[in-house]
Design brief:
The protein has 2 domains: about 15-380, Alpha-Beta Barrel (TIM Barrel), CATH 3.20.20; about 385-440, no CATH class. The protein has 16 helices and 14 strands. The chain has helices spanning about 45, 55-60, 80-100, 105-110, 115-140, 165-185, 205-225, 250-260, 275-280, 285-295, 320-330, 355-380, 385-390, 400-405, 410-420, 430-440; strands at about 15-20, 30, 35-40, 40, 50, 100-105, 140-145, 190, 200, 235, 245, 270-275, 295-300, 340-345. Strands 5-6-7-8-10-12-13-14 form an 8-stranded parallel β-barrel. A two-stranded parallel ribbon has the order 1-2. The protein has a two-stranded antiparallel sheet with strand order 3-4. β7 (about 140-145), α6 (about 165-185) and β8 (about 190) form a beta-alpha-beta unit. About 40% of the residues are buried. Its EC number is 5.3.1.5.
């Protein structure tokens, strides 16, 4: 039994173990075997599964049409510090029972924001000290921290992109405190998600100034963290819209272009969220491919959207086809650079039993594990790789290679076109590729 606080919050549930795909125990992993080696690494090393503090221990199931349905025992104390300690006890019990090694947080997930900036600073320092001890006792690590610079009404027009300097300054102070907490907890990375860094209307927006201010803000945040000894990665988490009509970190390509423009590409990488990718009208695998091609595949937030809804539903991943295609890109890219797989997902509003959050995370981990096993089998034991290489074989020798090496000019291409005449069609064999994936799942 794993209990790290004064009481057991998830009673009757022990540590979740791997029992294999033939097990009928709902509280056991069927595919996620932490020590199993796949493509040279254990599953645990590939994924570095992390629990999202905000959804798992803060989110109570509310939606625009009604209040929350999950009543957490750790929210009962009226004393903010005691409530935060109770939440931390529950969090570390849950993470330990899941057998995961990491968690992620926003600053005010850890403890309720104070009435003043000074009070918030005091509270965050106190709970950071408490969680530091929890980490020591459990061996659980911090994958990344971040600051919630989007929920408070002061950020209704953005934080780093706010037209009011004093609001930007307040955000800077808040990010400093979140960085301090992340560094104190030996966080391996730090994330910036621009929840309101964008615009509702271009009529009252100077986009150029806002982008410049955001670039300057990130530069100063990076410089401060480095001056304090932080050696980890900074991540940008793209999202196209919601809550803003348009957000400046629209997708991986947009974020990468922004980072390069402001000279931040050596310190920042991309944290890709599945549901954000689909909101941008991309696939999960597309966003991974774009980031990997740029050498910026940093971390993943694992969830999914509802195919009938046009907003961020943050459901737990269960689409094995989608995740398998993503894991093909993941393995070809050599995995993640610094980050891990964070379950930025929430149980449904009508899931109200304490065990439901275990079932959700078990399913999510098993989906990623099964997809990884399938992708590895496709790469090593099917014609998939050869078929892909054959499609581009004309660039491996002769004139094609000369072009790829930059040795042919446009006049050369013109001459070759004249010599070749009309060309036969060559099939892309898309259905065959799709069948190979289905065959191996």
């Amino acid at each position: 039994m794993v209990i790290l606080g004064n009481k057991e919050y998830y009673k009757g549930i022990g540590k979740i173990e791997f029992e294999g795909k033939d097990s009928d125990n709902p509280l056991a992993f069927k595919f996620y075997n932490p020590e199993q080696i796949v493509a040279g690494k254990t599953m645990q090393e590939h994924f570095k599964f992390s629990i999202a503090y905000w959804h798992t221990f803060c989110g109570q199931g509310s939606d625009p049409f009604g209040p929350g349905t999950q009543k957490f025992i750790w929210d009962q104390s009226s004393n903010p510090l005691q409530a935060a300690k109770d939440k931390a006890d529950a969090a570390f019990e849950f993470i330990s029972k899941m057998g995961f090694n990491y968690f992620c947080f926003h600053d005010y997930d850890l403890i309720q924001e104070g009435a003043t900036f000074a009070e918030s600073e005091k509270r965050l320092a106190l709970i950071t000290d408490y969680i530091k001890q929890k980490k020591t006792d459990s061996g659980i690590k911090l994958l990344w921290g971040t600051a919630n610079c989007f929920s408070n009404p002061r950020y209704m027009n953005g934080a780093a992109t706010n037209p009011e300097f004093n609001v930007l300054a307040r955000a800077g102070g808040q990010v400093k405190l979140a960085l301090d907490a992340t560094i104190a907890l030996n966080g391996e990375n730090y994330v910036f998600w621009g929840g309101r860094e964008g615009y509702m209307s271009l009529l009252n927006t100077d986009m150029g100034r806002e982008l410049d201010h955001m670039g300057q803000f990130l530069i100063k945040a990076r410089d401060y963290a480095r001056s304090q000894g932080f050696k980890g990665n900074f991540f940008i988490e793209p999202k196209p819209m919601e809550p803003m009509k348009h957000q400046y970190d629209f997708d991986s390509a947009t974020a990468i272009g922004f980072l390069r423009h402001y000279g931040l590409e050596n310190d920042f990488k991309i944290n890709i969220e599945v549901n954000h990718a689909t909101l941008a009208q991309h696939t999960f695998q597309h966003e991974i491919e774009v980031a990997a091609k740029a050498g910026m595949l940093g971390s993943l937030d694992a969830n999914r959207g509802d195919y009938q809804n046009g907003w961020d539903t943050d459901q737990f991943p269960n689409n094995i086809q989608e995740v398998t295609e993503a894991m093909l890109v993941f393995l070809k890219a050599g995995g993640l650079q610094g980050g891990g797989v964070n379950f930025d997902a929430k149980i449904r509003r009508n899931s109200t039993d304490m065990e439901d959050v275990f079932l959700a995370h078990i399913g999510g981990a098993d989906t990623f594990a099964r997809a990884l096993l399938t992708a590895d089998k496709i790469i090593t034991s099917s014609p998939y790789e050869k078929l892909r290489m054959d499609r581009y074989s004309s660039f491996d020798s002769g004139k094609g290679k000369e072009f790829a090496d930059g040795k042919l000019g446009l006049q050369d291409l013109y001459n070759i076109a004249h010599e070749n005449g009309e060309l036969p069609l060559k099939s892309g064999k898309q259905e065959l590729f799709e069948n190979i994936i289905n065959q191996h799942i």
